[in-house]
Design goal:
Blueprint (H helix, E strand, L loop, with lengths): L14 H14 L7 H4 L10 E6 L6 H4 L8 E5 L8 H11 L3 E7 L9 H9 L7 H14 L4 H12 L6 H5 L2 E5 L6 E4 L1
Parallel strand pairs: 1-2, 1-3, 3-4
Antiparallel strand pairs: 4-5
Helix pairs in contact: 5-6
C-alpha cells in the first residue's frame, strides 16, 4: 500500500489557477476552431466512423499513438479505457455518426492496475452513506469492471461489447482491441 513519502504532493489547483492556465492556453495554443458541420464538410455523414475507447492516462493518447487528427476518430476516455463506463456514450455517438468500427485501447502500467479491492472498500467506507445499496453497488462495479486486468481486460471488454443487444451487428463485428506497451509505444492487437 502507498505510504506518504518525503516527496511533496502536487498542489491542488484552485479555481483561479485553472482560470489563469486557461488564459495562457487561449493566448498561446488555442487553435482556430470550426463548427462540427464545417469540420465534417457540411454533413455528419463525413464525420468520424471510428470510435476509440481509451484510458485517460496521458501516456495513452490515441491521437498521438495512432497519428490521428480530430476528424479521423471520436475518442472516449475513462480510467482503464474500460467498455462498461462507455456504453451509453457508444450508443449516443453511433446515433449521430453511423460508426463503422470500435477500437479499444488499454495499456501496461495503467493506474487502475494499482487499484485493489481493498482500496475500493476503504474508499467506499468513507462515503457519505457507505452502507447504502448504491454505495455497495458502485464499489462492486469498480472492483469487477474498472480495475485493469491487463490484456485479459481487453478480451473481456471485447466480449462485453459483443454481448450488447443495442449495438448493430456490423459495428460489433468490426470491433478490435489493442494493448499498448507504455514503455515502447508499440501497440498489438488482442484477439
Amino acid at each position: 500500500m502507498d505510504t506518504p513519502s518525503d516527496t511533496p504532493r502536487p498542489e491542488n489547483m484552485s479555481v483561479e489557477d485553472l482560470i489563469q492556465r486557461n488564459k495562457r492556453y487561449v493566448g498561446e495554443a488555442h487553435p482556430k476552431t470550426y463548427t462540427l458541420l464545417q469540420m465534417f464538410k457540411g454533413s455528419f455523414f463525413n464525420g468520424p466512423h471510428t470510435l476509440i475507447i481509451a484510458c485517460l492516462d496521458s501516456r495513452c493518447d490515441p491521437y498521438k499513438i495512432f497519428n490521428l487528427n480530430p476528424p479521423d476518430a471520436v475518442v472516449i476516455r475513462n480510467p482503464g479505457g474500460r467498455v462498461s463506463a462507455a456504453l451509453s456514450s457508444v450508443a449516443t455517438l453511433d446515433s449521430r455518426f453511423d460508426l463503422e468500427k470500435i477500437v479499444l485501447l488499454q495499456h501496461s502500467d495503467c493506474g487502475t492496475s494499482h487499484v485493489t479491492e481493498e482500496l475500493v472498500d476503504k474508499r467506499i467506507d468513507t462515503a457519505r452513506s457507505p452502507h447504502d445499496p448504491e454505495s455497495i453497488k458502485m464499489g462492486n462495479i469498480v472492483k469487477e469492471l474498472m480495475i485493469s486486468k491487463g490484456q485479459a481486460g481487453v478480451k473481456a471488454d471485447l466480449e462485453m461489447l459483443r454481448r450488447q443487444p443495442f449495438l448493430r451487428e456490423s459495428l460489433v463485428r468490426n470491433s478490435v482491441g489493442f494493448w499498448l506497451d507504455t514503455f515502447s509505444g508499440v501497440v498489438k492487437v488482442v484477439e
